[in-house]
Design a protein that fits this description.
The protein is α+β, with helices and mostly antiparallel strands and about 600 residues long. The chain contains 20 helices and 21 strands. Strand 19 (about 550-555) and strand 20 (about 560-565) form a beta hairpin. The chain is globular, with a radius of gyration of 30 Å.
Length: about 600
């Protein structure tokens, strides 16, 4: 960073000089300058900065003393203005969770890191990595650029500074990169104990009474080959050509308490047994109901939940397609037995006649000890109908093209005609909607007499099964919908927190990268809780952006270097008030140790 000035001629003909702090960035093969801070008119700064300095130091002064200071002050040279607000809040939440003490108590692993500095403060590096996830998600290579623009310090107040050293495509000193990688190694290898301790801390802070455990899966892809755990599988990111890992998250009361990482080709249902075994062995749960989506359901998994150690119940979805039992259960629905469910927040804001309904009724299940609820949702029906009509249109257009080729004699052999038709039907699930036959050398397309009516009949309906005999139908629907909280957590992990893509090539660091993102999600939820309790209508994404207006400034006055913290925007001040955070200055570093790498 460096200081630049710009001269602007006013309408009265007077030219003023304005001072800015700028930084150089490499963009599209060119060096560009980005304005970090506008410091104001140069002639005004000579008067304002001494007064600002006394204010930042918290010194009291009267008009006489201020006048004496202004009269005696010499030149003021701004040196640095770094973003500090996000790091300030992350440190506050980090301390509130007791992570300093927790990470300090973790075991070190010298066999994996024989040349590690024993005095390196790896918990402080984890703090920095979490702050990076929440503000400017990047790889450890790109982390160095973030260290230049943000004031990132360890627990003693020593600022992390990047070490630039060209080594092929890597522009960061390898020794500095290894420090960050080793911090990840320590975190990954202590994951089991850290998660349990964090859950216990959450239980104490927010009075958690776990009676429902929510579990769902997502995937995240790699930029490159990745380690052996990176496999091709069903991509929830729309990146089927990239290798991936599958990530499962467990939430209790809206708080993420545990996560698991599997190979990218792992089936959803294959993860349930491991998750239940892990939760039973590590967490002190009482009576708990496992809530999962329909992808988790197999007869074996239901038996696992029923026979698991501890007092476990289940509330899980049922697959609807290619499931004869589901078709039978939906056919048992009686129109006069529907029960209306409570509408959501968005629906309640609409006029009564425009509000989408959600209805439920219990139907008889042939399995002992299992209750089944059929849910009918107007919103789901509208969505599924729209998707079906779009698929039918695309499928029919594809079939018409094949039909024209047959009519013009370009496609004659029956086996080739059948192969072309099947390709079209497979592309948009067309076999659900259309049937075809080859008659007198002509391709005839008709709506499927069985599949299409069944699709229309079941649109908007889904099934929930549980072993809870005292659970009301409306409560079952409400609890099942709470799985959306896990989905919202996945959205935060992937987009604002930036868990994807993954660049690591070592498995334990892949796991550590995801663990850092999971802790970042936990801190993000803590900030969200504080904003909600303070009745601030502000998302956490907007809050992290507003906090960037709080800056750590450093300037020289009469050959003496001074520092301070700016107040930030009004929104930033509201966030600090919501967190009851009054001390905004970073720790004072030891003399002569202002920076570290």
């Amino acid at each position: 960073m460096f200081v630049r000035s710009i001269k602007v001629r006013s309408s009265s003909g007077v030219t003023h000089e304005y001072v800015r702090i700028v930084e150089s960035l490499w963009h599209d093969g060119h060096v560009k300058q980005k304005v970090v801070a506008n410091l104001g008119r140069r002639d005004v700064l000579d008067t304002v900065l001494p007064m600002l300095n006394r204010f930042l130091r918290g010194e009291e002064h009267d008009a006489t003393k201020l006048g004496e200071q202004l009269a005696s002050s010499g030149s003021v040279e701004p040196l640095d203005a770094s973003t500090w607000g996000p790091m300030l809040v992350v440190r506050h939440l980090f301390e509130k969770l007791g992570l300093w003490k927790l990470l300090d108590s973790c075991r070190r692993w010298p066999k994996l890191m024989p040349d590690e500095d024993p005095h390196d403060d790896w918990p402080s590096r984890i703090l920095a990595l979490i702050a990076n996830r929440l503000t400017r998600p990047s790889s450890e290579h790109a982390l160095a650029g973030w260290l230049e623009s943000d004031y990132v310090c360890d627990r003693r107040g020593r600022r992390y500074v990047p070490c630039w050293k060209r080594n092929g495509r890597v522009r960061v000193d390898p020794q500095q990169l290894q420090c960050w990688y080793r911090a990840l190694d320590h975190l990954s290898l202590n994951k089991s104990g850290i998660e349990v301790a964090l859950y216990q801390r959450l239980r104490d802070l927010f009075h958690l009474q776990p009676d429902l455990v929510f579990y769902d899966l997502t995937s995240t892809y790699f930029a490159g080959q990745g380690p052996s755990i990176a496999k091709h599988g069903y991509s929830r990111d729309g990146r089927p050509r990239n290798v991936q890992v599958v990530v499962g998250v467990v939430m209790v009361g809206g708080w993420p308490i545990a996560h698991h990482v599997w190979a990218g080709n792992t089936r959803d249902s294959a993860t349930v047994k491991e998750v239940i075994t892990d939760l039973t062995s590590r967490f002190d749960f009482g009576r708990v109901v496992f809530v999962g989506d329909r992808g988790m359901v197999t007869e074996k998994n239901v038996n696992e939940l029923t026979n698991a150690d501890g007092d476990w119940g289940f509330l899980v979805g049922m697959t609807r397609r290619q499931n004869p039992e589901a078709e039978t259960l939906i056919d048992r629905v009686q129109e006069n037995r529907w029960i209306d469910c409570a509408v959501g927040v968005n629906a309640s804001e609409k006029k009564p006649e425009d509000r989408p309904r959600t209805r439920v009724q219990e139907v008889t299940c042939d399995r002992d000890g299992v209750r089944v609820f059929v849910v009918d949702s107007d919103e789901r029906r509208e969505y599924e109908t729209r998707m079906r009509e779009k698929s039918m249109k695309r499928t029919y257009e594809g079939l018409e093209k094949v039909q024209r080729r047959v009519a013009k004699g370009r496609l004659k052999q029956p086996e080739k005609i059948g192969a072309a038709v099947e390709r079209v039907l497979q592309r948009h699930h067309g076999y659900r909607y259309y049937a075809w036959e080859l008659k007198a050398g002509q391709l005839q397309i008709v709506e499927h007499p069985v599949n299409l009516p069944r699709e229309k009949k079941y649109e908007g309906k889904y099934l929930i099964q549980t072993d809870q005999l005292d659970m009301k139908a409306q409560d079952a629907v409400a609890h099942y919908k709470e799985l959306n909280e896990v989905e919202r957590g996945f959205h935060a992990l992937k987009d604002p927190i930036g868990m994807r893509p993954i660049w690591h090539h070592v498995e334990r660091r892949v796991r550590a990268h995801i663990f850092v993102a999971a802790i970042a999600l936990l801190l993000d939820r803590m900030l969200e809780r504080a904003l909600r309790d303070a009745r601030l209508d502000l998302s956490t994404t907007a809050a992290w952006q507003a906090l960037q207006t709080i800056r750590h400034v450093r300037f020289r006055v009469n050959d003496e270097v001074k520092t301070g913290v700016t107040a930030g925007s009004s929104q930033a001040q509201q966030i600090l008030n919501a967190l009851k955070l009054t001390e905004t200055r970073p720790p004072t570093p030891p003399s002569g140790q202002e920076t570290t790498t």
